[in-house]
Structures are given as C-alpha cells and as structure tokens.
Write a structure and sequence with these properties.
The chain is an alpha/beta fold. The protein contains 10 helices and 20 strands.
Length: 395
C-alpha cells in the first residue's frame, strides 16, 4: 500500500462521499508517513481516520487525483481492468467500426475514472497523453495493460506528453514510442480519411471530439459557401465537401495546418476545385472578407486555460462571433464553439448572445452541441464537460 497518508480537515470529506475525484490542497490538514514526491500513489483519509480514497499526488491546487474510492493496489491489474471497461464501452457504442470508423477516444480522464490520462485511437496506433506526474510514471505499465486489453487491434503506442504535464513537475519528459514505431498515419472517421500527425500536431494529432458535430455540419452544407475558421487539419472542411457544399474555404494561422488540411481534402476529393486554403490570422481574414459565406464554422483553440484569463477569453469570443454575425449572409448558419473548460455553457452563450445583439441580426438557436459519447462526463465530475457549441440561423 501507499507510504503517505493525506488527512483531510473536518468537513472536507463531504465532496468525496459524492465521489468527486479531486482533493484540493486547501482541504488537507496534514500528511502522515513519508514525505510524498510528485506522482506517488497516496492514501486519503478523513480527520477521523476513515478511508476516503487512493490516488496520485502532485504539487498544485489539485493535490490528489483519486483513482479509487475503495482500498486497492494501483498496479497492472488495476489499469488493465479500467482500460477493459473503457474499451468495452466504446465497442458497445459502435465506435470501432472497421474501415468506416477507426478513430475515437479510448480514455477520457475523469470521465473514465482514470484522471490525468488521455488515450486516442487512430486505426492501429494509440496516442497516450499524461496530464499528471502519476500517469507519466505509470506510462509503461499503462502501455502493457493497453496492449493486453486491445491485443492485435493496436501495433503502436505513442506517448505524447511533452506539453501536457504540469511545468512544476520538472519531469524531463519526452515524446516516444512505447510500443512499435512509425506506421500508417491514415485513419478513417465516418468513411472519410485523414492523416494524423501525432508526432508534431496539436493534442494527439486530430480532434476526435468534433466527430458528431462534423456529421451535423455535413447535413447543412448542400449548396452553401462554407468558411472553416481555425481549420487545423480540415475536419469540418471535408465533411462540408461530402455534404455538397458549393465551395469550402479553410483558414488557419499555421502554414503546417493548412498543408495538412490540403492533404486531407486531397485524400477524399482529389483535384476538387471547390476547396481553397489560406494561412492567415483569423481576425484579419474576417475583417478583410466580404459577405461571401452562408455557413461559417468558428472552432478556435482554447481562449482560456485558467480562470484568471476568463474575462479576456469571453471578450475574444464576443469579438469573434460579432465579426461572423456582421459578415454572414442572410439565411446563413453559424457553427460556433468553445473548448475552454473554464468557460461555462452559460458564459459562452452570453458571449455569443451579446455579439448577436451588437450585430442587430435576428438569430435563432438550431442546436446546442457538446462532446461525443467517447468523451464521457463523470456524473460526479461535471467539470469534465468542456466542449460547448451552438448552431445558429442568422436572418
């Protein structure tokens, strides 16, 4: 068992009786036993000595991420059981569907009772990200457990946590293959192919959390002129093309992202003249363009990663959406998103509504969007609901 015990202050155990997995540093009264180091598995008890949970310790406001609310060893068997449950859920959802769909999220942190861990599957490659020192130290055990669970379904496991681990940890981490090596980087989502740059791309290489929202966009794209802002690797763009869009323009500030977008469009629609891509700043592009589009997608990177910049982020969402409302054609449709966890649904909606009011346009909500089923939200951890989206009809 663990060598360190974290004793909670009186009354601080209540949230854990409701199975919330975060122990904040301010809730801890004292530490008993060995002085813990980052990534250690520690035991948490209430002030009366009753067991609360076992989890990973780290420096910061979230001091312990609870892995289990029952006394268990955190070992290979533990991780194998958790990964098996996660895998079976994805299979039951029909997400692993041969050559039609082989890209999905296997582990979504707290949503799969593995806080601090992300695993995305791209065909026969698993890309693993640690967001806590504990998961970083467990990476080889996790890789072994993952291979035991998925067997021949995966040949490669790539560990990519260089930019996701807490900076205070000083872990000297580096990205590496834990199993296999370079293979085919092409995956399929709902019958559409795309390249995944898990070596140099953002996150794990693709944003699988927009899969269902891309399918919805496809239904609205016929005969429309589509602008995909912050296109990254072009997911919304090639769905719009399959949906029968008249033209699709993809915009991103990164020239590498534009190159990958063009490759992905070419994979699915070789030589199709409907698509053009531009490496430009989003706000400059929106300022310069005319009223050329009747379907616009705004899917920016997280404007706020910390609460202290929340107000600046909300101003950014207001400014961005106001420009889209100003320029979109009458009868146009706007898909607008926030992936910032610290931006609540209410805050995001208020920012978009304020932008709509400033524009003076009549706007109606067609859909309220969120993350898909392979990004589950632990009912005891509502903070896991990070993706917010609105589909709006603009008169």
């Amino acid at each position: 068992m663990t060598k360190s015990k974290f004793i909670l202050k009186p009354g601080k155990e209540d949230s854990f009786r409701r199975f919330h997995p975060w122990v904040f540093s301010g809730a801890i009264q004292r530490i008993v036993g060995d002085e813990p180091t980052e990534g250690d598995v520690v035991t948490v008890e209430d002030w009366q000595g009753n067991f609360v949970g076992v989890g990973h310790y780290q420096i910061g406001s979230i001091a312990v991420r609870i892995l289990s609310f029952t006394p268990v060893e955190i070992d290979l068997a533990f991780y194998r059981e958790r990964l098996q449950v996660a895998y079976q859920m994805r299979r039951s959802l029909g997400l692993e569907n041969g050559d039609y769909n082989n890209a999905y999220r296997l582990v979504h942190g707290e949503g799969d009772n593995l806080p601090g861990l992300i695993i995305d599957i791209y065909r026969n490659t698993a890309v693993m990200q640690a967001h806590s020192p504990g998961m970083h130290y467990a990476r080889h055990t996790l890789a072994q457990a993952l291979k035991e669970v998925m067997g021949d379904m995966i040949d490669n496991i790539y560990y990519k946590s260089e930019t996701t681990l807490p900076y205070k940890a000083a872990l000297e981490q580096e990205n590496e293959y834990l199993l296999g090596g370079v293979g085919d980087d092409t995956a399929t989502e709902n019958g559409l192919k795309f390249h995944v740059d898990w070596l140099r791309g953002q996150k794990t290489g693709f944003f699988v959390d927009q899969r269902e929202n891309r399918s919805l966009l496809e239904r609205y794209s016929r005969n429309r002129k589509v602008l995909n802002m912050f296109c990254y690797t072009g997911g919304f763009s090639f769905y719009a093309m399959r949906g029968g869009a008249e033209l699709v323009h993809s915009v991103d500030s990164s020239a590498k992202a534009i190159d990958l977008t063009c490759q992905n469009v070419e994979l699915n629609f070789p030589g199709d003249p409907r698509h053009q891509a531009f490496a430009e700043d989003a706000f400059k592009y929106l300022d310069a363009m005319g009223s050329n589009y009747d379907l616009i997608i705004l899917d920016p990177p997280a404007f706020a990663k910390h609460r202290k910049v929340l107000n600046n982020a909300l101003q950014g969402y207001r400014k961005l959406n106001a420009k889209a409302f100003e320029k979109i054609r009458p009868g146009g449709i706007l898909f607008t998103f926030s992936c910032s966890q610290v931006v609540s649904k209410e805050n995001f909606r208020l920012a978009v509504f304020t932008a709509a009011a400033q524009s003076g346009r009549k706007v109606r909500i067609l859909h309220q969007l969120t993350q898909p089923a392979d990004h589950p939200v632990n009912i005891y951890h509502p903070e896991g609901e990070y993706l917010k989206g609105l589909v709006l009809y603009v008169e």
